[in-house]
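User: Mind token order:
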Amino acid sequence: MINQGITHWPTAKYREHLMTVVDDTVAREFALTVSINGEQYATIVCTPTSLKELVIGFLASEGIIGNQADIQSLTIDDYKGFAYVELNFKIEVSERTERWIGSCCGKSREFYLKQDVKVAKTIMSKTKINPNQIVNLMQEFDNKANVFSQTGGVHQAGLATSANIETTFIDIGRHNALDKLFGYILLNKLPARDFCILFSGRISSEVVLKVSKIGAGILLAKSAPTDLALKLADDLQITAVGFIRNNSLNVYTHGYRILNNGIEKNTQVRGGDL
């Protein structure tokens, strides 16, 4: 079966004073236009895999739907690049471009869209994990990154318990990878609060907002965070863990979800002790 996430391109490679032409592997880029109730809503530039999960997760992240039952029908024409969605209700498409500044739980937050205020939520998950489990999960996560290994051009997002990875998705867009994960959770009616989210990229404010909308309490990432991302994670009660490489990691917020396992007691991080 052809992998829709990759394609091949004749490429001249220069190595050690020698130029050779090879059939190189590159990541595919695909434009998918989402039409809702007969009206074009958005075009997502994505990797053309798991498109059903992508569309459902995208609509949930946008605050358009609350669950799969809100969708009357979903048809994807991957040849023309269209996803046709019929909902059980009408929507106002014009609202999605508004910028909104809102507050929640007594703390001011700046969100990118009005939908963020409606959908982002404070996480009350009691799920916990220890550092050894985090390191093992990230190693397994890396082992599943076949498309990244071949192309270097995609992001990967995963859903895991403290012991095992449930599933992973790849996409050229980091938001799309998380939306595919969101769609999978909704399609399979999984309790997001019981899982951790694994992510291949940096912890940005947009990524934290996506995790909040999904409803998971622990975000495990390979790379660095931004300060706004950590402020949001602290505010939204998300445990943010970054720089998970080899046998090391950094816990930035809400460390009470990370079991000590030999770590010095009362190590201070934002949102709680380790």
